[in-house]
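Exercise 4. Each item below gives a protein and its sequence. For each, produce the structure-token representation.

Item: V8-like Glu-specific endopeptidase (Streptomyces candidus).
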Amino acid sequence: MRPIRPARPAPRGRSARRRSAPLLSAVGLVAALALTATACGPTEDGAAGTPTNAATGPAGGSADGKITIPDDLKDRLKEHGIDLDKWKGGEWKNWNKDDWLREAEDFVNPIIAGLWDPDRMKDAEKPPKQPVANDISGDAGVTDPVPARLPARAAKSPYHSTAPEAGRLLFDSPEGSMACSATVVKDPQHPGKSNLVWTAGHCVHAGAKGGWFRNIAFVPSYNDQAKPVSKTTPREQVAPYGVWWAKAALTSDQWIAQGGPTGGAGAPYDFAVLSVTPETAGGKSLEETVGSALPVEFNAPAVPQIVSMQATGYPAAPPFDGERMFQCADKPGRLAIKPAQPTMYRVGCTMTAGSSGGGWVAQGADGRPALVSNTSIGPVSAGWLAGPRLGTEAKAIYDKAGKK
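Answer:
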């Protein structure tokens, strides 16, 4: 599969610059009126849906498919000192490579209450277009044999009792609404009150040929009871612990510079950390709300010393539907994309797109469970997944995220 991403995506390891409240409000208002509805769920690498123009009501679309903003709305915003046509040259509404907001300081993700309703969450499930090849090793002398195909097993519900830190990550891309997986992790700078979420870089930023995705939101214990989801499903069923919006996102410089639809040279650095805030203010942190957060283990033991790693995610490409949590536990092997790059972990697992970004857990240095990697890439049919080994680059963005 390609990077089992949103199943697709990833961001740069620099801190996001704060935006003024008026700007956020304005962008949020515009976004609410002119949305690009899309859906994507990570296949064994990443999946993307078909773009849909969802600009309705007062905000419409031009003949060439671009979003247009009503003149009366523009005038009202200008009364508050906000001219959207001049902000970043209007780049906020563009997805093309030249204008797509790429840099850390460009990250803008205003809360749009109610945007992610059960129906839209369910639609974020599409298979990948460009699967990863079964054999992508760039260094046969380092890469271990392809692991045996290991069927993913359904996690026991309620998921909050099985993996309370796990959840689903939703976002909009040029190709539609997409879905990845993510994990609540501890924040040493705010003990017991973490608002940090770990995922794959390709789930928040498109890499070398794109920029930041929009409307990024995390849903812990998504569909906790593993029940069928439809248009009439109550939001409380699919989001029992609320919807948490990314207010800051960080990923590696390597992913932004080298990442691609199938991972590419950026795959060994395909990780990201989000600082989130609740859609509905409640006073409690994410960690307090879900009751748990995993520590992150950097520079985990070498492959021969690891007995087992467990990958968790919400696979969305067939034969899965993105509505249920699955897991795989296997002894990892090594995968080298290029000789000069860090090796990746690789395990046998049949999870598909949508599982991208999901946490890999192993025994930490203190003997307790810790997050040691995340799902990044995998072929559609071979039955394996690969994730980055977390080192100094990952530690740097993790530390910065805690300061947000």
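Check: The chain has a mean pLDDT of 79.
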